[in-house]
Design brief:
Radius of gyration: 16 Å
Order of helices and strands: HEEEEEHEEEEHEEH
Structural class: alpha+beta
Number of domains: 1
Helix content: 10-25%
Shape: globular
Number of strands: 11
Strand content: 25-35%
CATH superfamily: Nucleoside Triphosphate Pyrophosphohydrolase
CATH architecture: Alpha-Beta Complex
Length: 214
């Protein structure tokens, strides 16, 4: 598998050709949800999609002049779940949201203050089922600088950008593992500088790579 070094124009073209144009529905018969269950050394049943907590995240690709980047967050260390982990901005779907796009953009504004006017949604990835019981719809959006961020310290310790070229290079997609709930579980990890990108976040990045690379 080859690394992808994409310009802004190439990202737009590939998004139109290879990303989903509509968010995945529950029980989608065209493509099953991706997830942690795909990566295990022993085959396991995927979580019950209908029983999972519905969530959405934004994959914000920032169109920098010196090369696109992906905007990520470091979750607040004081949070009760997934504390201090690297994540995409996002969260649970509220009943009033109406669509994963609304959820992803609302949560992004709440967490890091990125106004939705700066985000152009260009497609979706397959739903991602996590081992912790979430069904996440990844919403891919392009972000045009300049923009300002306002970090919500109750949810996020830091927002940072990682070069898209680094994340779209399979040489940087490590397979690591640890014991969790009595079973050895494997996952993708993409360490970058002081940040350890792993788990569902790394899994969705890998899925983005597979989509864009065809």
């Amino acid at each position: 598998m080859q690394a992808l070094k994409l310009t802004a124009a190439e990202i737009v073209a590939l998004a139109g050709a290879r990303l989903r144009h509509e968010p995945p529905d529950l029980g989608d018969v065209i493509s099953r949800p991706r997830g942690d269950h795909d990566l295990q050394p022993e085959a396991i049943e995927p979580p019950d999609e209908a029983a999972a907590i519905q969530a959405a995240v934004l994959i914000p690709i920032v169109l920098r002049e010196d090369g696109p980047t992906v905007l990520l967050t470091q979750r607040a260390a004081a949070l009760r779940s997934h504390s201090a982990q690297v994540a995409f901005p996002g969260g649970r779907v509220d009943a009033v949201d109406g669509s994963p796009v609304v959820t992803a953009l609302r949560e992004t504004e709440e967490e890091i203050g990125l106004a939705r006017e700066h985000v152009r949604v260009v497609g979706f990835l397959d739903a991602y089922l996590t081992g912790t019981g979430y069904r996440v719809v990844p919403v891919v959006g392009l972000v045009e600088p300049p923009f300002a961020l306002t970090i919500n310290p109750h949810e996020v310790d830091e927002a940072f950008e990682t070069p898209l070229a680094f994340l779209m290079d399979p040489a940087n997609h490590r397979r690591e593992g640890r014991e969790w709930k009595g079973r050895y579980r494997t996952y993708y990890a993409m360490p970058f500088g002081d940040h350890y990108i792993w788990g569902a976040t790394a899994g969705m990045i890998r899925n983005l790579y597979e989509r864009l690379s065809g």
